[in-house]
Each structure stands twice: as structure tokens, then as C-alpha cells.
Design brief:
The chain has 33 residues and is mainly α. Helix 1 runs antiparallel to helix 2. It starts with a helix and ends with a helix.
Length: 33
């Protein structure tokens, strides 16, 4: 469910910078686990 939420947020990202930021945050969260 969390993955789907991240995908929806990434899909709604307006700029490339936002998409990169979301991706970095996702990787950070994954490595925290």
C-alpha cells in the first residue's frame, strides 16, 4: 500500500526535480528499514 502511494505521488510530480526528490526520499526510507 505504501508503494502504491509513492507511485501515485511520483506520477503527480510536476517537475523532474520533484520526481528526483521523491525517488531519493523513497530510497532513504527503504534503506532505513
Amino acid at each position: 500500500m505504501v508503494g502504491n502511494k509513492l507511485i501515485m505521488v511520483a506520477a503527480s510530480a510536476i517537475t523532474v526535480d520533484e520526481a528526483i526528490a521523491i525517488r531519493s526520499l523513497s530510497l532513504f526510507i527503504i534503506f532505513q528499514i
